[in-house]
Amino acid sequence: MSPDPSNETKRAAHKAYWRANLRLMAWLLSIWFVVSYGCGILWVEALNTIRLGGFQLGFWFAQQGSIYVFVVLIFVYVWRMNKLDRQYDVDE
Amino acid sequence: MELQTWTYLIVGLSFALYIGIAIWSRVQTTRGFYVAGGGVSPLANGMATAADWMSAASFISMAGIISFSGRDGAYYLMGWTGGYVLLALLLAPYLRKFGQYTVPDFVGQRYYSSQARLVAVVCAIFVSFTYVAGQMRGVGVVFSRFLDVDIGVGVLIGMGIVFLYAVMGGMKGITYTQVAQYCVLIFAFLVPAIFISITMTGQVLPQVGFGSTVLDASGADTGVYLLDKLDGLHRELGFAAYTAGKKSTIDVFFITAALMVGTAGLPHVIIRFFTVPRVRDARLSAGYALLFIALLYTTAPAVAAFARTNLIETVHEQPYAEMPRWFQNWENTGLLAWMDKNGDGRIQYGPGSAFAKLPSQASLKLVKESGLGESGQPRFANPPGKGRNELHVDRDIMVLANPEIARLPNWVIALVAAGGLAAALSTAAGLLLVISASISHDLLKKVLMPGISEKQELLYARISAGVAVCIAGYFGINPPGFVAQVVAFAFGLAAASFFPAIVLGIFSKRMNRQGAVSGMVVGIAFTAAYIIYFKFVNPGANTADHWLFGISPEGIGALGMLLNFAVSLSVSRLTAPPPADVQALVETIRVPR
């Protein structure tokens, strides 16, 4: 990219940045949905047949696991977005 | 040292700290008052957001609620944490880039409409007042239980403290007191939890102890997992297993969704992200906030299981005369009561209620009578309830009495009082700022009196914060009976109004005023009508048979949100696209620079 991009290339770069952002979001939100609504609610009985130490797995996802995954998801988002910001030259 | 002395000392020290911060962080500009000058570090903002978010209910009541509802309690855990993922990915960075002071600001500007701004102002004020009354009440309750002060006096002291730092320091004062309050409350929550985990399972981390085997009184491993033991105790007593769900899957699904989306749409949480310098800081501080919240939220279900096991083992089939001292202490507060239905002098615990309400009462309230029963227990005017259960346990006791039940030193018990106060005060302050900014900025400056100077606006902001503190205090001293019912309202409304309007405002360039306003109106009207019908008009019909698709009023906000999305998208496609400058605004907020 040239140091002083014309408006047109800048717009195209912003579009590409936005698409990459949406792709990342779709991935992370799918995981968010699967661990909470999936493992913690919809499939909880099936997962409860599996044991994780003293926990039934479905119960663990509902009261512990989903929360851990949420935290990780946000930090992954932060890391990937900072990378995207630099890659598309839109960082502050 | 006596417990009372410890409590005065620790609570006094924490209050001195808050006042010190209030004096240090006075502000002179509206930008300082509304968004702390935009210079808060992501780490500090993460802590402040966590304290802002975790209310008296999270600190005092949540573990108890989970303790009594078992696995179903998970919808609070997932609902009140999962919303941060939505906040971080869908809202926080874009609203930070937008760079104004309030949520109605965004709604008003993005939808180029004073009407939309007014709808948002009314929702923000309603949601915040609903919430803040409960916080002030929480302050009063902690004072009365731990310091033997009248609830009203306790509320007045709490009002005085909040008044100081909210009116003088605005967002800046609130932010840095919230950082201090987070430290106090998390320490106060974790210390007893860790102690109890070590005593019961030998594990330092409650999150690990939760899934470990139980130790016996001598400290030897029994080889039985805590949760298996608890399930066994539950079956023995006639309860459903602790790890089994009792509510229908669809209801749990919708309640979780309403809480998640509601969390992401609550104005006092959203405005915290206006206080950091850059877009990347907004993302990072959402991560920190959830990390700090998760510390408490993953500990709470462990505390719930520990406390439940402890309670059942200590009381069930045991003679009343041999109860430990804490039992009597909490009997005195009315949170614990025993009725010897079968006259054997032993406590039987199980499903059903120990007491029934008096004919004159609308809801169960124990009325003490003079004199003592045969075993020396306090007597009550209330008739016995259904079932063979003889013990009345208030859910709040699970956190408040936990340190005593686990025989922890007095300073730990005093710490719990300071923690409860920190949780209530920090949330109250955040909500008061939303109310104040909605009035001085959105209503006065942007709609009614656009000509006022910055100095005047700041004065109005301080005045409205002061008035809001007084109204909140009034509701804290004279709680309207409907507070518990309207909490579902706060989340439902936030979910059905703000969340879709903001998300569509960022992610759909085509979304216009007509779409957003009609979506909000339909979402709010549907959600409000459903909740009002089942909570106020016809409470007798509030059962799964009468609910729409089996969704309870607590979960209906999620359906209201879907309706809002559907209406907004259809109406916007049938009407003219938004003006070019608004479309350009959407393009700018999508990129950090």
Commentary on this structure:
The complex is a heterodimer of chains A (92) and B (593). The model of chain A has no long low-confidence stretch (mean pLDDT 91). Chain A has helices at 7-42, 44-47, 57-87; strands at 51-52, 55-56. Chain A has a two-stranded antiparallel sheet with strand order 1-2. Chain A contains three helices and two strands; from the N terminus they run ααββα. The longest helix of chain A is centred in the N-terminal third of the chain and has 36 residues, at 7-42. In chain B, the strands form four sheets. A two-stranded antiparallel sheet of chain B has the order 1-2. Chain B has a two-stranded antiparallel ribbon with strand order 3-5. Chain B has 593 residues and is mainly α. Chain B has helices spanning 3-24, 30-35, 42-53, 56-69, 74-98, 103-110, 114-147, 151-201, 206-209, 226-237, 249-265, 267-270, 279-315, 325-332, 397-400, 402-405, 410-448, 454-477, 483-496, 498-507, 513-537, 556-574, 580-590; strands at residues 213-215, 221-225, 318-319, 336-338, 346-347, 368-372, 378-380, 391-393. In chain B, a hairpin with a 5-residue loop joins strand 6 and strand 7 (378-380). Chains A and B meet through helix 1, strand 2 and helix 3 of A and helix 5, helix 10, helix 11 and helix 13 of B.
